Amino acid sequence: MSGVVLKDVVKAFGDVVVIPKLNLQIDEGEFVVIVGPSGCGKSTTLRMIAGLEAVSAGEIFIAGKDVTYAQPKARDIAMVFQSYALYPHMDVAGNMSFALRLARVPRAEIDERVRVAAEMLELTPYLARKPKDLSGGQRQRVAMGRSIVRDAYCFLFDEPLSNLDAKLRATMRTELAILHKKLERTMVYVTHDQIEAMTMADRIVIMKDGIIQQIGSPREVYTAPANLFVAGFIGSPSMNLVDAELTRNEGALSVKGQGFELPVPGRLQERATAATSRDITLGLRPEHFSAADRGNGAFAPIELAVDVAEYIGSSQFLAASVGGKHFTAAVEVGPDASPMESGTYYFDTDRLYLFDRESGQAL
Amino acid sequence: MAEETDIAVPKPRPGGRTLTPYFFVLPAAIVMIAGLMYPVADAFYLSFFDWKIGTKFAKADNVGFDNYIRLLSDPDVRESIWVTFRFGFWTILIEMVIGVSLALLLEKPIRGASIFRTIFILPLMVSPVVVGLIWRYLFDARVGWINYYLGFIGIEPQVWLGDAELAFFAIVFTDIWQWTPFIFIIVIAGLQALPSEVLEASRIDGANWWQQIFLVKLPMIRSILLIALLMRLIDVFRAMEVMYILTGGGPGRATELLSLHIYNRAFDAQLLGYASAISVLLILIVFILSLGILVVGNPMKDKSDI
Predict the structure, then answer these.
(1) Looking at the 3D structure of chain A, how many domains does it have?
(2) CB nearest B306 (choices: A71, A88, A150)
(3) N or C: which end of chain B has fewer CB within 10 A?
(4) Contacts of A103 in chain B (CB under 8 A)
(5) Is the interface score ipTM higher than 0.90?
(6) pTM of the full predicted structure?
């Protein structure tokens, strides 16, 4: 049982149960991103893996060893914090070598490992600087360097990119992905940003209220969200979710809401037939709207009353309404199109989602 | 409409505007000049004269640098400086060690820590004169509680304030009793302001309890420690009331700190000019020490570290 395993882990602060019962198996070498809104217990989960927070019940294994009650330093982990958590009184080299110095690694080896990590992160010119003399991105890289030098079994990241500006964040995302390829270490990454999750993860764990909603590859959680929460959380702009009902017209099953009616696609026929009497929530991703019928039989017309068209470049985000309900549509119309107006748009019905409104589960 | 706009936006006054900032600094400047600069300058002026209280200053002899020349070869002054340095060394050393240790122990939110913290800082709130009186009675050779309780463990009554060594011990002990809380408060505030993520990072990096204290916590509050040290150092040279009441500087000059020595010279011996010259020396010593600490430590340098 290698990798990182959480078995029936419970966390309570006093009487408040933050994480009821959590089971998670992370394979060796895997990059797993835990994502969820603030307060969902994702950071607490990470801190329990790190040993910074004690578990209330359950067991944690790292590399096959039971570390449930082990000190952080005995877990063979490295961690990158949101605030970078650099030692302000040490220079970059000192920050990166601190763990090795504590472990009494020979001087020459320390120097070599710091040199390699600094080169990898392009920090070589800054080794003698103090953290306060570095930019946010550089500090972030020092924090990563501190972990790399450790060569730990498992790397933990607690929202490491949230203090960076948008552009730097995108760069660091790529660098992290490359780093993971190079180091081939198990990495657990916590974020509230679903784009970070989608771009970097081998597998995404989506959490809400301390409960795992879905575990799957980025493609799985995007194309087959398990429930309403995942559907609304993954994807940007987020999925349109509207009340609807299933009706049968001359043998064909369709989903009907205020101001629209769309045919139920083949993949959902069977399950939808079984659910005709139940309340349904329909999910339409903005990016599956288009301005023209692409003509494969799956596109169905829908009338959008456009309030605002936001120019993004080759796409436009439409804030629109259908039957009085607010909709967002992202239509690809090329960079030269003039602002889109109200009219008939087409939706790729192969990609619509149906949810049981009461349970929130996908049909 | 146009008139209303005129009222709403006052015209800039080129002359008045430049004076405004000085106006705001004025109260502080007046207090500084009247309360600090003038007395210091006046003491400096006075140090060139031989003057007794009650006589006309106009009749006082201008003795030039005589007071300063006398000062340099005065064994009493030298002894007093020596006592002050010894006093400062022992009090500050022990206060720093105890204050920092207690702050490290009570930093965590243990049950009852806040009550203990409050009790612990009480000595700081007692007026120095009262502190002197309290400890004079506690140390009293005949009726003092200290001798009384020492009697229970078989220690003979000591003449605490009448023996040079014991009296020195008594003033050091009293100072530690009153001023350790000062170090404690400052250090605990600094420790509690440390970012928790850095301390967690050090735990993950493998630092044990001692290593966390000596390699992470204390270096991170280094500037606070230096400021505390500096303030205590200056206090040592100001300290007077407690010794004045506790021992009066005696026996002999065993507990006569420089400030008390100046007081005795000025008002007992009526040597105001000479006392002023010693005061100038005192200011010079404090100035050099402070400057030294600031240059070596520069607490302001690390301001933006965290």
Answers:
(1) 2
(2) A88
(3) N
(4) 206
(5) no
(6) 0.80
